[in-house]
Design goal:
Length: about 300
Protein backbone atom coordinates (compact mmCIF):
# COMPACT_ATOMS: atom_id res chain seq x y z
CA UNK A 1 0.00 0.00 0.00
CA UNK A 2 1.46 3.29 -1.04
CA UNK A 3 1.34 6.48 1.03
CA UNK A 4 1.59 10.05 -0.06
CA UNK A 5 4.82 11.88 0.81
CA UNK A 6 4.29 14.53 3.49
CA UNK A 7 5.51 18.03 2.58
CA UNK A 8 8.74 19.17 4.22
CA UNK A 9 8.31 21.46 7.27
CA UNK A 10 10.42 24.56 7.39
CA UNK A 11 12.94 24.31 10.30
CA UNK A 12 11.79 27.65 11.79
CA UNK A 13 8.19 26.43 11.89
CA UNK A 14 9.28 23.19 13.55
CA UNK A 15 11.22 25.07 16.22
CA UNK A 16 8.24 27.34 16.89
CA UNK A 17 5.94 24.32 17.30
CA UNK A 18 8.37 22.67 19.71
CA UNK A 19 8.65 25.81 21.83
CA UNK A 20 4.85 26.21 21.92
CA UNK A 21 4.38 22.59 23.03
CA UNK A 22 6.97 23.00 25.81
CA UNK A 23 5.27 26.19 27.04
CA UNK A 24 1.91 24.40 27.04
CA UNK A 25 3.31 21.59 29.21
CA UNK A 26 4.86 24.07 31.65
CA UNK A 27 1.57 25.96 31.97
CA UNK A 28 -0.29 22.70 32.54
CA UNK A 29 1.96 21.74 35.48
CA UNK A 30 2.44 25.22 36.92
CA UNK A 31 1.14 25.45 40.52
CA UNK A 32 -1.86 27.70 41.10
CA UNK A 33 -0.99 31.10 42.56
CA UNK A 34 -1.25 31.30 46.34
CA UNK A 35 -4.59 32.62 47.61
CA UNK A 36 -4.38 36.09 49.11
CA UNK A 37 -5.84 36.11 52.63
CA UNK A 38 -6.94 39.49 53.92
CA UNK A 39 -9.06 40.83 56.76
CA UNK A 40 -12.29 42.69 56.01
CA UNK A 41 -11.75 46.41 55.52
CA UNK A 42 -13.52 48.29 58.30
CA UNK A 43 -13.56 52.13 58.46
CA UNK A 44 -10.95 54.19 60.30
CA UNK A 45 -13.11 55.05 63.39
CA UNK A 46 -13.67 51.33 64.05
CA UNK A 47 -11.58 48.36 65.15
CA UNK A 48 -12.36 44.76 64.22
CA UNK A 49 -12.24 41.77 66.58
CA UNK A 50 -13.53 38.17 66.44
CA UNK A 51 -16.69 37.48 68.41
CA UNK A 52 -15.00 34.44 69.95
CA UNK A 53 -12.49 36.79 71.59
CA UNK A 54 -15.04 39.39 72.71
CA UNK A 55 -17.32 36.79 74.31
CA UNK A 56 -14.73 35.21 76.59
CA UNK A 57 -12.23 35.94 79.34
CA UNK A 58 -9.21 35.87 77.00
CA UNK A 59 -8.68 39.61 77.56
CA UNK A 60 -9.88 39.72 81.14
CA UNK A 61 -11.49 42.59 83.01
CA UNK A 62 -8.57 42.92 85.44
CA UNK A 63 -5.80 45.41 86.09
CA UNK A 64 -2.43 44.63 84.54
CA UNK A 65 -0.65 44.55 87.89
CA UNK A 66 -2.80 41.59 88.91
CA UNK A 67 -2.07 39.38 85.87
CA UNK A 68 -1.08 35.77 86.52
CA UNK A 69 0.70 33.08 84.48
CA UNK A 70 -1.54 30.42 82.95
CA UNK A 71 -0.69 26.97 81.56
CA UNK A 72 -3.22 25.84 78.92
CA UNK A 73 -5.94 27.18 81.15
CA UNK A 74 -9.52 26.65 80.00
CA UNK A 75 -11.00 30.15 80.06
CA UNK A 76 -14.60 31.11 80.65
CA UNK A 77 -16.40 31.63 77.35
CA UNK A 78 -19.90 31.88 75.96
CA UNK A 79 -21.57 28.63 74.88
CA UNK A 80 -20.12 27.34 71.62
CA UNK A 81 -16.69 28.91 72.21
CA UNK A 82 -13.68 27.12 73.69
CA UNK A 83 -10.45 28.93 74.57
CA UNK A 84 -7.33 27.52 76.21
CA UNK A 85 -4.49 29.89 77.01
CA UNK A 86 -0.80 29.59 77.90
CA UNK A 87 1.23 32.64 78.95
CA UNK A 88 0.90 35.75 81.07
CA UNK A 89 -2.75 36.69 81.42
CA UNK A 90 -3.97 39.25 78.90
CA UNK A 91 -6.00 42.31 79.88
CA UNK A 92 -8.11 44.90 78.10
CA UNK A 93 -5.08 47.11 77.47
CA UNK A 94 -3.51 44.18 75.59
CA UNK A 95 -6.70 43.98 73.55
CA UNK A 96 -6.20 47.65 72.59
CA UNK A 97 -2.77 46.78 71.21
CA UNK A 98 -3.97 43.68 69.36
CA UNK A 99 -6.93 45.51 67.82
CA UNK A 100 -4.65 48.31 66.61
CA UNK A 101 -2.26 45.76 65.06
CA UNK A 102 -5.19 44.11 63.25
CA UNK A 103 -6.37 47.55 62.17
CA UNK A 104 -3.05 48.26 60.45
CA UNK A 105 -2.84 44.75 58.98
CA UNK A 106 -6.31 44.93 57.38
CA UNK A 107 -4.96 46.92 54.40
CA UNK A 108 -2.74 44.11 53.12
CA UNK A 109 -2.48 40.34 52.87
CA UNK A 110 -1.98 38.57 56.19
CA UNK A 111 1.42 36.99 56.63
CA UNK A 112 3.09 39.97 54.96
CA UNK A 113 4.92 42.61 56.96
CA UNK A 114 2.85 45.42 58.46
CA UNK A 115 4.97 48.55 58.96
CA UNK A 116 4.42 51.40 61.41
CA UNK A 117 6.28 53.64 63.82
CA UNK A 118 6.24 53.23 67.57
CA UNK A 119 5.26 56.86 67.94
CA UNK A 120 2.33 56.54 65.53
CA UNK A 121 1.10 53.36 67.19
CA UNK A 122 1.06 54.95 70.64
CA UNK A 123 -0.74 58.04 69.34
CA UNK A 124 -3.42 55.81 67.80
CA UNK A 125 -3.93 54.33 71.27
CA UNK A 126 -4.31 57.80 72.74
CA UNK A 127 -1.02 57.54 74.63
CA UNK A 128 1.88 59.99 74.61
CA UNK A 129 4.99 58.65 72.86
CA UNK A 130 8.06 58.03 74.99
CA UNK A 131 8.87 57.09 78.55
CA UNK A 132 6.73 54.53 80.35
CA UNK A 133 4.33 54.17 77.42
CA UNK A 134 7.13 52.81 75.24
CA UNK A 135 7.97 50.18 77.87
CA UNK A 136 4.28 49.36 78.24
CA UNK A 137 3.82 48.89 74.47
CA UNK A 138 6.89 46.68 74.14
CA UNK A 139 5.69 44.56 77.06
CA UNK A 140 2.29 44.18 75.39
CA UNK A 141 3.92 43.08 72.13
CA UNK A 142 5.99 40.55 74.11
CA UNK A 143 2.90 39.10 75.83
CA UNK A 144 0.92 38.83 72.59
CA UNK A 145 3.86 37.20 70.80
CA UNK A 146 4.79 34.82 73.62
CA UNK A 147 1.20 33.72 74.29
CA UNK A 148 -0.26 30.50 72.92
CA UNK A 149 -4.01 30.39 72.37
CA UNK A 150 -6.32 27.64 71.23
CA UNK A 151 -9.56 29.25 70.04
CA UNK A 152 -12.54 27.34 68.68
CA UNK A 153 -15.97 28.67 67.76
CA UNK A 154 -17.34 25.30 66.69
CA UNK A 155 -16.44 25.85 63.02
CA UNK A 156 -12.73 26.64 63.16
CA UNK A 157 -9.91 26.14 65.65
CA UNK A 158 -6.81 28.32 65.68
CA UNK A 159 -3.77 27.53 67.80
CA UNK A 160 -0.71 29.74 67.97
CA UNK A 161 0.38 33.21 69.11
CA UNK A 162 -1.77 36.31 68.64
CA UNK A 163 1.21 38.11 67.05
CA UNK A 164 3.34 35.97 64.77
CA UNK A 165 6.67 37.85 64.87
CA UNK A 166 8.22 41.23 64.25
CA UNK A 167 11.26 43.49 64.31
CA UNK A 168 12.16 47.03 65.33
CA UNK A 169 14.71 49.50 63.98
CA UNK A 170 16.13 51.15 67.07
CA UNK A 171 17.28 54.32 65.32
CA UNK A 172 13.96 55.17 63.66
CA UNK A 173 11.45 53.35 65.88
CA UNK A 174 10.11 51.62 62.74
CA UNK A 175 8.31 48.33 63.40
CA UNK A 176 7.31 45.39 61.27
CA UNK A 177 4.75 42.88 62.55
CA UNK A 178 3.15 39.78 61.07
CA UNK A 179 -0.32 38.35 61.77
CA UNK A 180 -0.95 34.64 61.16
CA UNK A 181 -3.23 34.26 58.08
CA UNK A 182 -5.13 31.46 59.84
CA UNK A 183 -6.77 34.05 62.11
CA UNK A 184 -8.70 35.38 59.10
CA UNK A 185 -11.15 32.48 59.45
CA UNK A 186 -12.61 34.21 62.52
CA UNK A 187 -13.46 37.27 60.43
CA UNK A 188 -16.06 35.55 58.27
CA UNK A 189 -19.67 36.83 58.04
CA UNK A 190 -21.38 37.12 61.48
CA UNK A 191 -18.15 36.01 63.21
CA UNK A 192 -16.60 39.39 64.01
CA UNK A 193 -17.59 42.84 65.28
CA UNK A 194 -16.65 46.44 64.57
CA UNK A 195 -15.74 48.25 67.79
CA UNK A 196 -16.29 51.99 68.19
CA UNK A 197 -12.72 53.18 68.85
CA UNK A 198 -13.63 56.60 70.25
CA UNK A 199 -16.00 55.07 72.81
CA UNK A 200 -13.34 52.57 73.80
CA UNK A 201 -10.79 55.32 74.36
CA UNK A 202 -13.23 57.13 76.66
CA UNK A 203 -13.45 53.99 78.82
CA UNK A 204 -9.71 53.61 79.34
CA UNK A 205 -8.58 52.38 82.77
CA UNK A 206 -12.03 50.88 83.39
CA UNK A 207 -11.42 47.17 82.74
CA UNK A 208 -14.95 45.91 83.36
CA UNK A 209 -16.53 48.68 81.26
CA UNK A 210 -14.06 47.91 78.44
CA UNK A 211 -14.85 44.19 78.55
CA UNK A 212 -18.61 44.85 78.58
CA UNK A 213 -18.16 47.31 75.68
CA UNK A 214 -16.75 44.58 73.43
CA UNK A 215 -19.11 41.89 74.71
CA UNK A 216 -22.32 43.83 74.10
CA UNK A 217 -21.06 45.27 70.82
CA UNK A 218 -20.84 41.69 69.54
CA UNK A 219 -24.55 41.06 70.25
CA UNK A 220 -27.26 42.65 68.14
CA UNK A 221 -30.02 41.83 70.64
CA UNK A 222 -28.51 40.44 73.86
CA UNK A 223 -30.55 38.18 76.11
CA UNK A 224 -30.91 38.89 79.82
CA UNK A 225 -27.94 37.36 81.64
CA UNK A 226 -27.29 36.66 85.30
CA UNK A 227 -24.82 38.68 87.31
CA UNK A 228 -22.93 35.45 88.06
CA UNK A 229 -22.59 34.65 84.37
CA UNK A 230 -21.10 38.05 83.51
CA UNK A 231 -18.81 37.78 86.55
CA UNK A 232 -17.43 34.48 85.28
CA UNK A 233 -17.27 35.42 81.61
CA UNK A 234 -15.41 38.71 82.20
CA UNK A 235 -12.62 37.01 84.16
CA UNK A 236 -13.15 39.39 87.07
CA UNK A 237 -11.27 38.50 90.26
CA UNK A 238 -13.77 40.27 92.49
CA UNK A 239 -14.57 37.45 94.91
CA UNK A 240 -17.59 39.11 96.47
CA UNK A 241 -20.50 38.96 94.06
CA UNK A 242 -22.25 41.91 95.72
CA UNK A 243 -19.17 44.08 95.13
CA UNK A 244 -19.00 42.88 91.52
CA UNK A 245 -22.66 43.79 91.07
CA UNK A 246 -21.87 47.31 92.26
CA UNK A 247 -18.98 47.58 89.80
CA UNK A 248 -21.19 46.12 87.06
CA UNK A 249 -23.80 48.82 87.63
CA UNK A 250 -21.15 51.53 87.38
CA UNK A 251 -19.59 49.97 84.27
CA UNK A 252 -22.96 49.79 82.49
CA UNK A 253 -23.60 53.41 83.49
CA UNK A 254 -20.27 54.31 81.85
CA UNK A 255 -21.35 52.51 78.67
CA UNK A 256 -24.59 54.41 78.61
CA UNK A 257 -22.81 57.72 79.07
CA UNK A 258 -20.50 57.15 76.08
CA UNK A 259 -23.42 56.01 73.91
CA UNK A 260 -22.50 52.32 73.72
CA UNK A 261 -25.83 51.05 75.12
CA UNK A 262 -29.30 52.59 75.04
CA UNK A 263 -30.42 51.41 78.47
CA UNK A 264 -29.89 48.75 81.12
CA UNK A 265 -31.58 47.34 84.21
CA UNK A 266 -30.49 44.82 86.84
CA UNK A 267 -33.62 43.15 88.16
CA UNK A 268 -33.92 39.89 90.15
CA UNK A 269 -30.23 39.20 89.53
CA UNK A 270 -30.76 39.44 85.76
CA UNK A 271 -28.97 42.05 83.66
CA UNK A 272 -31.14 43.48 80.87
CA UNK A 273 -29.26 45.58 78.30
CA UNK A 274 -30.65 47.29 75.22
CA UNK A 275 -27.90 47.92 72.69
CA UNK A 276 -27.65 50.11 69.61
CA UNK A 277 -27.19 47.58 66.79
CA UNK A 278 -25.03 48.55 63.84
CA UNK A 279 -26.39 48.53 60.29
CA UNK A 280 -25.02 45.06 59.64
CA UNK A 281 -26.53 43.81 62.90
CA UNK A 282 -29.87 45.37 61.96
CA UNK A 283 -29.76 43.46 58.66
CA UNK A 284 -28.92 40.30 60.58
CA UNK A 285 -31.90 40.80 62.91
CA UNK A 286 -34.20 41.49 59.98
CA UNK A 287 -33.09 38.28 58.26
CA UNK A 288 -33.92 36.28 61.41
CA UNK A 289 -37.47 37.59 61.66
CA UNK A 290 -40.10 35.15 60.34
CA UNK A 291 -41.89 36.36 57.20
CA UNK A 292 -45.24 38.01 57.83
CA UNK A 293 -48.28 36.22 56.47
CA UNK A 294 -50.75 38.11 54.39
CA UNK A 295 -54.32 38.06 55.53
CA UNK A 296 -56.79 36.62 53.09
Amino acid sequence: MSSERQPDVHPAVARFAAVAETAKKRTRHRPAPAKVIQLPFWPEPKRGAPNAVLRAALFAAVQGKGRIALDRELLAAQNGITIRYTGWQLTQSDLDVWEQALHLARTQALGTRCRFTERGFLKALGRQPGGQNVDWLRSAFARLGASWVEISDGRQTYFGPLLERGAREEETGQYVLEINPELAAFFGPTRWTQIDWEQRQLLRNKPLALWLHGFYASHAAPHALTVEYLHKLSGSRNKQLRFFKRHLTQALTDLQQVGAVRSFEIRDNLVHVQTMPSRSQQRHLAARRPPTRRRR
